[in-house]
Amino acid sequence: MSDPLSAAEYLARNAAAVQPAGALEERLAAAERESRPLRVKLGIDPTAPDIHLGHVVVLQKLREFQDLGHRVVLIVGDYTARVGDPSGRSATRPVLGDDDIDENARTYQEQAGRILDTAPERLEVRRNGEWLDMPMTEFLALARIPKVAQLLERDDFSKRYREGRPISLLEFVYPLLQGYDSVAVEADIELGGTDQTFNVLFGRDVQRAHGRPEQATLTMPLLVGIDGVQKMSKSLGNHIGVTEEPTEIFGRTMRIPDGLIDQWRDLLALDLGPDDAADARTRKRALARAICDRFAGDGSGARAQEEFDRVFLGGGVPDDVPEIEVEAGDVHLPALLAAAFGMSRSEARRALGQGGVRADDEPLTSERLDVPSADLDGRVVRVGKRRFARVRVRSVDA
RNA sequence: GGGGGGAUGUCCGAGUGGUUAAAGGAGACGGGCUGUAAACCCGUUGGCUCUGCCUACACAGGUUCGAAUCCUGUUCCCCCCA
């Protein structure tokens, strides 16, 4: 694998683009020649510390670079986060304080460690606050690099401009700062999702303006979320977090549309084994197991599947059902459901009215909203197909 | 600096004084069918102490028996001109 050509081919196999053509081979060859590891850069946003499968795609790619002997440079965007990204129209993001950024960065590293090799010679973590707090004169020098037409060529900008939606100057400045990061850490290669295409390419302009060698860029396709339509993102609620319970990971994976199986397998670099040749359902189960094994620990996939089958094929109840305590006497069902499942009482009422609530297998209806707690003690209340809670009557010994 | 347009529920989007908790769509949720897939069908979708009450159409006041709809001020956004 030390052959630069085959290494490049391997690394690019599931990438969206490697630009400019041949740059990756060239860099790998240079590393070989100079017998030094490449510096592979990824910028991260310290506002969202929950790593999900969408983030994993790029992290996995970084891991592949590491396994080939190269060095990953993670840049925590503490400075850019402090500026407060105004994009996203209506919702102004809260500006984070130092403590939050520290905390988020720490969480991020902890979670990324599930994918990356965290050995110091393989992973370097930097904060762009180290260099972005620059004198105005330096910033002005940066600001003459991009041309407005160039910035407006960008898909999202041109689209927004055409549609008359706001673009703040700060958003124009972002690529500059990100590009300067590449200068500061002497990046050989920068990775990102395809949404970062402009930014990573622009890093080359900034490097050139500073008389530095220009980085190669590798962009990965954006993983589609479990809704099968939009890119995976926490704010869209179509994500699977790497720290989630295996049963949850398994279950949510089983909900993805069949058409997504190949993409997930390829982008997450998972091996489905012999099941890969089977029917869609079998393949999806294999995928779900593989994801569990990868992030929740070896063997967790098989266990999750067993539980899944028991609960959803057999109509059973999961092993570890959260408990909800109630006082002795009558229980007001809407209140109970609201407390147990985080729904509003009105929602709970509706669910009851629609026959979506059961105690063990007995349907609870909206005819009787107050029931003696003794009738529910020890039983599992279930809303819909996958929300469970075991009821316990608080003992009255106090 | 001047002129014009706009802000409606999770999102999109109707609605210009009264039966509007607010059309329609999307999404989400519950049910049916299934493989917790797709497609399809039905229902729900502000909150609550629920045959009623409370809060809601950027924010604050005002007019009116009655306002998302009219008036005033404020904030934010977009466009055009300079």
**Number of domain modules:** 3
What's the CATH topology label of the largest domain?
Rossmann fold
Which class of secondary structure composition applies to the elements? Answer: alpha/beta
CATH architecture of the largest domain: 3-Layer(aba) Sandwich
The gyration radius over C-alpha positions equals 25 Å
Poorly predicted runs are 86-93
- State the total count of DSSP E strands: 13
Report how far the terminal alpha carbons are from each other: 69 Å
Keywords:
Rossmann fold, Structural Genomics Hypothetical 15.5 Kd Protein In mrcA-pckA Intergenic Region, Chain A, five-stranded mixed sheet, six-stranded mixed sheet, 13 strands, alpha/beta, 14% strand, RNA-binding
Can you tell me about this structure?
This protein is of the alpha/beta class and 398 residues long. It folds into three domains: 4-220, HUPs (Rossmann fold), CATH 3.40.50; 244-313, no CATH class; 323-393, Roll (Structural Genomics Hypothetical 15.5 Kd Protein In mrcA-pckA Intergenic Region, Chain A), CATH 3.10.290.10. Helices cover 46% and strands 14% of the residues. A six-stranded mixed sheet has the order 1-6-5-2-3-4, sandwiched between helices. A five-stranded mixed sheet has the order 7-13-12-9-10. A two-stranded antiparallel ribbon has the order 8-11. Helix 1 (4-12) packs across helix 2. The chain is elongated, with a radius of gyration of 25 Å. 34% of the residues are buried. The model is unreliable at 86-93 (pLDDT under 50).
